[in-house]
Amino acid sequence: MTNQYPDDSLALHTDAYQLSMMQTYFLEGIHERQAVFEMYFRKMPFENGYAIFAGLERVLDYLNGLHFSATDIAYLRESGEFDPSFIDYLENWRFKGTVRAPREGEPVFNNEPILQVEGNVFDAQLIETPLLNIVNYQTLIATKAARIRTVVGNQGLLEFGTRRAQEMDAALWGTRAAYIGGFDATSNVRAGKLFNIPISGTHAHSLVQTYRSDYEAFKAYAETHRDVVFLVDTYDTLHSGVPAAIRVAKEFGDKINFQGVRIDSGDMAYLSKGVRHMLDDAGFPDAKIYASNDLDEETITSLKRQDAKIDVWGIGTKLITAYDQPALGGVYKVVSIENDKGEMVDTIKISGSAEKISTPGKKQVWRITSNKDGKSQGDYIALSDEDPRDLPEGLYMFHPNYPYLNKTVKDYTARPILHDVVVDGEVVYESPAVKEIRQYSHEALHALWPEYRRDLNPQEYPVDLSKKAWDNKMALIDDIRAYVKELSSENEDLEKY
Ligand SMILES: Nc1ncnc2c1ncn2[C@@H]1O[C@H](COP(=O)(O)OP(=O)(O)OP(=O)(O)O)[C@@H](O)[C@H]1O
Ligand SMILES: O=P(O)(O)OC[C@H]1O[C@H](OP(=O)(O)OP(=O)(O)O)[C@H](O)[C@@H]1O
Ligand SMILES: O=C(O)c1cccnc1
Fold this sequence. Notes:
binds nicotinic acid; TIM Barrel; alpha/beta; nicotinate phosphoribosyltransferase activity; 6-stranded parallel sheet
């Protein structure tokens, strides 16, 4: 399908129920009521100790100049689903809200706000779906990438996932997220162009099959390239591929700057050791062994344990699809809303399961680090009118579910994590170059103790509520309980249920 709408916009990239609610607010005349919504996720992805926040650049692209185009409006009218006066209003609508977010690449944790939208309830509602769409995916992939980087150490790490991604957008933005999470380069050339990230690659089996021989294929490739890596497993790695690679490397010498070989099947521990011997014996001790084939942090760990002689890891499917956990599960909840007297009142969503109870009130996340070693002590979620900096008596931190787990931190720095990125509809933040984001992420991650960074059974990082935020939550839970009780006593029929 070609795009038949030259002015297609992203304004309709939302769930119909958002427009349905917006219509209600509009027709009831409350669409300009102020509200604060926050995005957070409840569980750490991959049971990891941290997540890497990503997606902000695309969020800003999306919000910048967001409006309903002529064909969007025409479509809504033709659908017959919405009131004409509501559609008239959408015609001149512009996003006027304020958005706060962490820096891209920032380590973030479950149950803390990672996006905050403040503005008309109408505006905030429309953008819920795309914000979750963007940040859930990119944060997931950046986190998966960071996990893989953890097990790979300082070795080369290449992103090969485009062919296996859930369509083109996912390949492109997933690649960017993977780079932020610590990959060195991508095979996706467009990502290289758009984001100015390094591109890299070898060649496929089809080259060898086209020439019907390893030697002929490598020779042709060598005639036409420098810095070559030969794929050696098309027919037989140890008996055909590697001998042919060595022969061509010797024949072409300095002309091709032979970089190494790639193995894409078979027992990679066994094969890589054999290949290493052959390359060393042939006088190519610096040639690198690349490996690919459904790799992820688990297989890499296992291969390292087996002392596989692999120098560069190419990772596709399991990274770009977040194979073992394909969704982050981030949610977007209203935490404060203007009442009919014009006052902001905090609001809570109660649930039978404790983890689904939201934390009311507009908040800020503070990262608390010790001034002695620069290492982080935990995150402190406070209401936005609190300032936990420079408290002479120290900062009292307690676990929100187990308050007896507590500590007082002295000689600390409290750094706010959420920053204004859009103010009253205007984008006020310019994303740094992706290379800088990657570097920032690396540094911010290493301000966490290694116990939170290990890939298996990491320590739970403290994400605490301020006393005021905690009291506010408890008071609202009590209010809701009293309200439900009153309803039940007013209506005896309800007692039956
Ligand atoms: N020594 C090893 N230890 C642990 N895992 C390995 C080892 N060697 C290879 N693997 C992994 O085992 C899996 C093997 O998958 P699979 O059987 O599909 O590969 P293959 O048959 O060798 O190649 P192909 O992809 O062409 O079918 C891959 O994920 C690979 O990365
Ligand atoms: O294995 P991944 O982590 O997804 O990495 C990308 C894969 O893409 C290529 O395979 P290709 O499409 O040629 O298929 P193959 O599995 O038959 O090698 C490459 O040889 C890798 O195996
Ligand atoms: O360049 C490569 O080796 C490559 C690129 C994409 C997928 N698999 C391998």
